[in-house]
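If you are new to this repository, start here. Below is one unmodified record pulled from the training split, so you can see the exact layout before writing a loader.
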Amino acid sequence: MSDEILRLRNISKTFDGKLILEDFNLSIKKNEFVTLLGPSGCGKSTTLRIIGGFLKPDEGQVYFEGKDISNLPPDKRNVNTVFQKYSLFPHMTVAENIAFGLKLKKKSKQYIDDKIAYALKLVNMDGYGDRQPSSLSGGQQQRVAIARAIVNEPKMLLLDEPLGALDLKLRHDMQRELIKIKKEVGITFVYVTHDQDEALTMSDRIIVMNQGIIQQMGTSKSIYDEPQNAFVADFIGDSNIIDGVMEKDCLVRIQDHRIPCVDVGFGKDELVDVVIRPEDLVIVGEAEGLLTGMVVSIIFKGAYYEIKVRVQDYEWMVQSVNPAQIGSMVGLTILPDNIQIMHKPISADEEIVKEEE
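And here is the target side for that same chain:
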């Protein structure tokens, strides 16, 4: 039996003459935590609303457990959605908010009471059932919204930037809570965010989107360590992205310096994008570096120093636990394994899709 729960096939959607999604295809497995990640306007929330039934695609089909649900309204899909605006009923208590969907389904009082108790315990809100939403913090309201969705026992929970209104500490707390809830209830989560840290922290798989096109799919580690194009490298974490020339297999020329790498299969003297993460660059003595430049700025970030080193007309970003002196000449070195070589995109809309099984 297939472990696929959702498939979007050839989905296209246009708003006011602007194409938001074009021939979009995606498969999601049962019990996955999948994050749709990308900048504003990339189509991630539109994708979520199509899955939830709040929008109908102009073209294409939505399959849920093998059945075409493209024309089913939201209340006929075994899917629940939690939005950034929690939409709790202000005139109802926490318990009444959680019970709302169950009452519509005409469940028994005992069943509803048991479900409320279970949901409150699940989101660490025991004893809050009689409280009004107005008396709760943003994080508590978010937990109630999640509890209200989960008690209906959906097979998939859709979350549209649900932590966007919370402060940094609360966001981190809720990230841990969502991971715990996901493991306990054993349902599929589809999460939308533009926050790369949220995506990297929580996801089994990340779908990086731009302009309605999937740029890369994979685990947090694979996308961070092996970005497939300059957009993904720039969007996921900090990166140094610079023009290079692939002289031959395992040798790239950067800023007139020939530097060993591990990449093969490029054309001789092919123009490429070279991506190096700041934490992979090491500052050494001026005579020891593969590149030589001047320290132009240093910022203390708590766990590390962010250091800018100007080499010719490019400022390299370095993240190091050791400070450097502004104005000093230093060398930069890098291990071949930590250099990522990428083909130059054919066009701004070039589609690159890589799925990690």
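Two things worth knowing about this chain: The chain has two domains: 4-225, 240-343. The helical segments are 44-52, 94-104, 109-122, 138-150, 168-185, 196-202, 220-225, 230-235.
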